[in-house]
Write a structure and sequence with these properties.
Elements: E1 7-20, E2 23-36, E3 40-44, H1 51-58, E4 67-76, E5 79-80, E6 97-100, H2 104-107, H3 114-126, H4 130-143, H5 149-152, H6 162-174, E7 180-184, H7 192-209, E8 212-217, H8 220-226, E9 229-234, E10 237-243, H9 244-249, H10 254-268, H11 300-304, E11 309-311, E12 319-321, H12 330-337
Parallel strand pairs: 3-8, 3-9, 6-7, 7-8
Antiparallel strand pairs: 1-2, 1-4, 4-5, 9-10, 10-12, 11-12
């Protein structure tokens, strides 16, 4: 664990909406979390929970119209990225925060050799050119364990497998020497064997170059293997943050517990546990706690009052957005919610 390390990235009260004719979609709603230097924070949630929109918001890649970052701060090494003129954000994208996108097949230019695509990132972010930039691009291919990098430099994307393309995307991101690397479900479209190879590669790179990673996923198996801490998202909000051991042994939010129960059922061969109901319509969110229509522990207060984001550990290590967090004395929880 890296508890003693300083926060390299802080996100405070981030809210992003999409303003449509039909109404406002609150894709990210008052999200706060931080990353310490050298750690892996997993951002976990089902499809539509706001994970990718939150990451794009960090880099100010939300297009207006219809998307708009409505409030919040993103502080990288003490500098609020929302105070920087938008035209200067290219200096942050890459050197400050780099992002590996979900679909390597559609993220690479099919008409340009992969070595040249990496070299362009090197030239833009490291100021190298010519043979120096080419040499650095080949070094990046070597870093991500691509065999015969001098030959692969001249390959086009269609000549590579899905796993190789993902390695190229990782090489492009790391060529910028970013302070923070965002990996947005980098193994989603890959088969399980290639997934395992990519995860081992990212673990090795983390150790080799001391990278800080925000790992976006909906796979708790990946969370168990990769993460130091975990942030759970639901309906655009972070509803629980804790270390990975606490997540699997003592989750405090009913939604998190529901996810854990479904995983445990798969492991033990018992009947699959499911969370009843459907995720809410982000254009017409429920009153009070957004999870209350699906919650087995719902009380009247949950239907009417929005829960605060509370520290149930007393040390800032376990945050939860719930009136009655599991495993916490209810009278104490009620007192904090008043």
């Amino acid at each position: 664990m890296v508890e003693a390390a300083q926060d390299i990235l802080k996100v405070n009260g981030l809210s992003t909406s999409f303003l449509l004719r039909e109404g406002e979609i609150k894709a990210v709603d008052n999200v706060s979390f931080s990353l310490k230097k050298g750690e892996v924070l997993a951002l976990v949630g089902e499809s539509g929970s706001g994970k990718t929109v939150a990451c794009l918001s960090l880099l100010r890649l939300i297009r207006w119209p219809p998307g708009k970052i409505k409030s919040g701060e993103v502080i990288l090494d003490g500098q609020n990225l929302f105070d920087i003129p938008l035209k200067d954000m290219h200096k942050i994208r890459g050197l400050g925060i780099a992002m590996i996108l979900q679909e390597p097949m559609s993220s690479l230019n099919p008409s340009i050799i992969i070595g040249r695509q990496i070299q362009e990132a090197v030239e833009l972010n490291q100021g190298l050119s010519g043979e120096e930039a080419k040499k650095k691009a080949i070094e990046m291919l070597e870093l991500v364990r691509i065999p015969s990098p001098e030959k692969r430099y001249y390959n086009y994307p269609h000549q590579l497998s899905g796993g190789m393309k993902q390695r190229i995307m990782i090489a492009m991101a790391l060529s910028c020497k970013p302070k923070v690397l965002i990996a947005d479900e980098p193994t989603k479209s890959l088969d399980v064997t290639i997934q395992a190879q990519i995860l081992r590669l990212m673990q090795a790179l983390r150790n080799d170059i001391d990278t800080t990673i925000l790992f976006v996923t909906s796979d708790l198996g990946i969370v168990a293997e990769m993460a130091d801490r975990v942030a759970i998202m639901y309906a655009g909000q972070v509803i629980e943050i804790c270390d990975v051991f606490k997540l699997f042994t003592n989750p405090a939010h009913p939604y998190t517990k529901g996810i854990m129960k479904s995983i445990m059922a798969l492991k033990t061969g018992e009947r699959l546990n499911i969370i009843s109901g459907d995720p809410p319509n982000l254009m017409a969110l429920p009153t009070g706690c957004t999870f209350h229509p699906r919650c087995d522990y719902c009380q009247e207060k949950c239907r009417t009052e929005v829960p605060q984001y509370d520290d149930i550990s007393g040390e800032g290590t376990h945050m939860v957005r719930c009136h009655f967090p599991l495993g916490v004395d209810k009278t104490q929880a009620e007192g904090k919610g008043k």
